[in-house]
Amino acid sequence: MAAPKELDPTVSLAALLGKKVRKHRERLGWTQREVGNRLNYSHNRIAQVELGTDPPTWDMCVALDAALGAGGELTELWEHMVRERAREEFPDWVQKYVLLEAKATKIYRYSPQIVPGLLQTEAYARAALRKGLPRASQEEIEEKVAARMSRQQLLGKTPPPLLWAVLDEAVIRRPVGGPHTMHDQLARIVDAAQAPDVTVQVMPFDRGEYAIMGGSLTLLSFADGPDVAYLEGIGPGILVEQPDQVTEHSLTYDLAQVQALPPDDSLALIKTAMEECYACTRHDPT
């Protein structure tokens, strides 16, 4: 039998993660095939992880950490890996926001057109990015999808940040990715809203005009620092740190919260939109 390929953990965090997986696997005396059989993955997939050529997803990393008795070492390293990937993939202004978002104790988000990234499904994110970046390669799209999905891990922190999202009704009505994708996306929002730290409101069309119409707004609060606001439209986002301006943006958000449907009524409207998507799927086999 050929000797296992030597790994260079200094090449990347993915390579270091692979080396750690191999170390724990060999400590238990298991082959790659045995690990794969236990976790329902092929031995080739385990080999790719160990070589650092195709890092594990979050779910796979959690399963590996538990099966190999790594005590959180693998999942912690995975989080470092995806944060590093995000820093490499995004421009400076996005990187700064992502770092602040990860430290926030409260995240208040208004979105007029698209589901916030923290609540997106992978299929929805892929469809939105594909349209938004028409000149990007499929590999580039997949990298951005992976980075966006990795940001969602902050909702699993202990304790998690409070997430309060106000969505224009257009967000739940526009069938991004088609009816199947949109149905699953709406289901994801409903499921997320069951958590005590997540609240979703919908601003229905019949409310007419309201204070915050336009581009998206995010307000971040911290345990040990001043609040910041983040404005996003078609071009680069704008991070607002001046206290008086942040206060003004907070006021417009508060007014939108008051005018939007209450959380229970909002979820009822989202479920109605889900049913309409489901009806469409019966006539759309894609």
TrEMBL record:
Any Pfam family hit: HTH_31
Gene3D superfamilies: lambda repressor-like DNA-binding domains
Residues covered by the HTH cro/C1-type domain: 21-77
Domain of life: Bacteria
SMART domains, per the entry: HTH_XRE (SM00530)
Protein name: Helix-turn-helix transcriptional regulator
Record InterPro entries: Cro/C1-type_HTH, DUF5753, Lambda_DNA-bd_dom_sf
